[in-house]
Amino acid sequence: MTVSVLIVEDDESVCDLLVLSLGQGYQTAVAHSIAQGQARLDKSHFDVVLLDYHLPDGEGVIISEQLKSRAERPIVIFLSASKDLDKKMAAFNSGAIDWIDKTQCAPTMLNLKLEQALKFRAKYRQIAQAEQASTEAVYVAMSDSFVWGHTARAIRSCLTTHSISGFLNAIFHYLSELNLLAAIAINENKGLTIWDSPEEAATGLEQEVMCLAMQKGDRILKIGRRYFFQTENISMLIKNIPDDEVKQGQLIDVLTAYVECAEHHLLSINQNMVKQLYFSKVSEALDLVKFRMHEFNKETNHIQNQQSWLFFEVFNKLQLTDDEEKSLTEVTDSTLMKFEEMALEHFKIVHDLEEVMAQFKKHVG
């Protein structure tokens, strides 16, 4: 690989010596002032800059300082005969990695210095790349942790809902916190409904897209920039999945897990709705039986009162003998006993029904 070198030196003889000293694999360019050096650097990229400290239009640290802000910064090595420690410190502070004494600049030393500098830069780049990869991995891990933790809390919130409206609210709230827009279709005991929000039903194009996607039967389906997630009884059409592949994969994973949990809970809500409807019907039937029993008891009491008054009148008017009165009393008591037995049978039926309901609720609830 050819290494490009810019020599910024005002002494032409030193420039010629440096060009001749560099071995094969080096491509050189020359500048004799700060202005010429800056112009060269603006037009072309160089791997190495050999820089004199004292130049006709200023000190070489001006160039070195300017190069510090570049993303692809070249290696800077100063060449100077100066013994001034402050100048050496200024050179290193400006970003230089070495200082070569001009008076002792043998070709072998120059080539050795350049080889060491290039190896150092290669290792530095490897470390920088590893550091960047590590930072990205940590960021992805932290992001995954946050999104999965958020999804776990959202699943727990969804599982505590007891109605379809609460169920929809929980799902739309979760999606809004992920900055996602969606249409949601749910099966409410064989009745399919499609929603754009907990209060607004989906219509037009959104409804058509959802219905077509559901017909395909895929668990996950990509439709342009949209993603479709489906289980047996719930479907979600996400309208704005981000383009970033890492973020996209992350969201697909959490949404797949979430919709599976939501499916399980929707079945539970639907089953509870059926049970509540059944309980309501049975309770209505029990209330009707109780009402009929109450009416029957009123009629029975009325008949008993009528019979008592009638017998009293009969006894007074007929002037029965003791044997006749005894016989009539027995017939009357027998009739009243039959009414009481009928009433007890009705009460037993109601009691048995209530026992059955209590056992049923205990079993299914």
From TrEMBL:
Keywords: Phosphoprotein
Domain of life of the native organism: Bacteria
4-aspartylphosphate modification, residue list: D52
A matching Pfam family: Response_reg
Gene3D superfamilies membership: 3.40.50.2300
Ranges for domain Response regulatory: 4-117
Record InterPro entries: 2C-system_Tx_regulators, CheY-like_superfamily, Sig_transdc_resp-reg_receiver
A molecular-function term among this protein's GO annotations: phosphorelay response regulator activity
Residue stretches spanning the membrane: none
PANTHER family tied to this protein: TRANSCRIPTIONAL REGULATORY PROTEIN DCUR-RELATED, TRANSCRIPTIONAL REGULATORY PROTEIN DPIA
Name of the featured protein: Response regulatory domain-containing protein
Species the sequence originates in: Pseudoalteromonas ulvae
